[in-house]
From TrEMBL:
<feature type="transmembrane region" description="Helical">
    <location>
        <begin position="104"/>
        <end position="128"/>
    </location>
</feature>
<feature type="transmembrane region" description="Helical">
    <location>
        <begin position="134"/>
        <end position="155"/>
    </location>
</feature>
<feature type="transmembrane region" description="Helical">
    <location>
        <begin position="63"/>
        <end position="83"/>
    </location>
</feature>
<protein>
    <submittedName>
        <fullName>Uncharacterized protein</fullName>
    </submittedName>
</protein>
<feature type="transmembrane region" description="Helical">
    <location>
        <begin position="167"/>
        <end position="187"/>
    </location>
</feature>
<keyword id="KW-1133">Transmembrane helix</keyword>
<feature type="transmembrane region" description="Helical">
    <location>
        <begin position="38"/>
        <end position="57"/>
    </location>
</feature>
<keyword id="KW-0812">Transmembrane</keyword>
<keyword id="KW-0472">Membrane</keyword>
Amino acid sequence: MSGNRGRARMQGNVLRGLYRLARGDAGGIREFGNTTTAFSASIAPLLAFPIVGSALIGINGHWILAAVIFLSRICGVLIQPVITEWSARRTGQGATWLMTSTALNWSIWLIFPLILAGVVLSGGLVSVGLPQPAATAVTIGLIVLYMFWYQWFILRAGLRLSVWRALSLLIAMNVAIGVVYGLPYALHPGLLRLILTSPAG
């Protein structure tokens, strides 16, 4: 019973932290645990998806490609905490890097409510006369911009970075992740088609 209450409290703090940060309250960063346990709980689901996806591709008979994709995705997930920890040490904020990285891990899941909100927004734009492709493009653009702002705000709140340093760090982090994620597709031009036609797709 006490274990259930503990898990409920952890989940409540995560949700409250995400909500507070979403409305620009820097104090929301303190809702995320500054411990290895909290960090592990935040990164575990992000590591699980590459394992499942790669296994499905492997079952389809492409084990080497599955291994390459698996390593690419795992490295992509781990880039964020590595860069966050490095930056925290460089700026004298090493005591809060776990909390910051934990918040960044959880922030990825915000994409799902944003997509739901985007569907409503896109429908509203179409209803006032905007063509569907344009409405979709505007909606996607706003979601991307908001997620970028959200993670930038987490870096500022967690590591106490200046506006431009947080922006530079976030850009570098996303470029590094994009390169690692995109490398398998550069090495195997037909990989995207293979994924879309496999059970994992």
